[in-house]
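During the reporting period the student researcher (J.K.) took over the structure-prediction task from the postdoctoral fellow and processed the backlog of single-chain submissions. One of the processed entries is reproduced below for the supervisory committee.
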Amino acid sequence: MKDEEKNKDKRDKMDNRNEIDKDEIKNALDDAKLSDNISFDEGRFLRKAKWISTLRTVAISLIVAAAFLILAVVVTQELLSRQEWRISDIYPSIIRYSTPNTIAIEGDSYDTGFIGRRKNFYLFRMVGKKPIAVGTTITDFQVWGGEQFWNPSRSTIKTEDGREYLLPNMVPALKFFHPAAKYDEFYDKPPREFDLLANVPENSTVEMAVSFSHLLSREEMKALLPAGVEPMWGAITAYSDKEIEKKNYLADRLVGIPLGGFVNGEHELSDEEFIQELDTLSKIPSHSSRALSRTASFLRQNGVKFYGVVVVGKPEALLKLADNPTISAAVMGAVEWQGMIR
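J.K. obtained the following structure tokens:
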């Protein structure tokens, strides 16, 4: 009996152990399944985190790029505006002092490319009290400056009678002839267009550029003009006779003083005021700074001497200049008649 009871106890213990082993195995399997589930969720989480990180990186990059682009545009526009202000401060004056009887008024401007801009200037000449449209000149520039200034007289057409006209408005070009320059290659002798006045109505106002056989002071030049003839713009020599005799093209580099037809608060400058004006303009950075400074220095040392003048008047008054031996050449400009331009 005792042996049987012992064996029964052993069997019970083994059954209990088996039950425990089964439970452990079941728990182990459950733990393994749970572990598999956790591993799967972690992978999906990591993929999602990686996608969010990439999206965040792209978004930040786009924001930085957009901010940089906006900043670049703002800075570029600011620099271009500063250059435009500088150009507007100097180029109307350069045109006024280098183009016969011509006034430049600021026009529109527009960007050319990302770092460039073009500025327009409208040109006109005063024929008596009447403004005559000449055309448009332009200045191209970049954020650092580097402006290219187009000469207002760059586009001309020459007719069979030898007269030149400025395009596109077909306004007669005004020309001067320096007493130290040689013009034999282009003219048998400098033109004297007084004969054209015979074809002009009596009550017209005529513009004419007259040149002198020798240099004159301002007082001598004005004393030369008869009653009814008004000076508008005086051509002054900016080089010595020896320099012009050696380099004939220097005579074409015009410098002049406005003497009439004033607009926008202008007034006639004295010789010293004109020299000071050139000095002031030379201090504004531009491609013309050196030439302006040199011209001011030359005039200060040699004085202001005229070799020609643009005048306006009725045909009858202008004809009185024809017999003056000091007049070496005369080129007729625009004609205003009853509000029309001829």
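The committee noted the following: The chain has six helices and 13 strands.
J.K. will present the remaining backlog at the next meeting.
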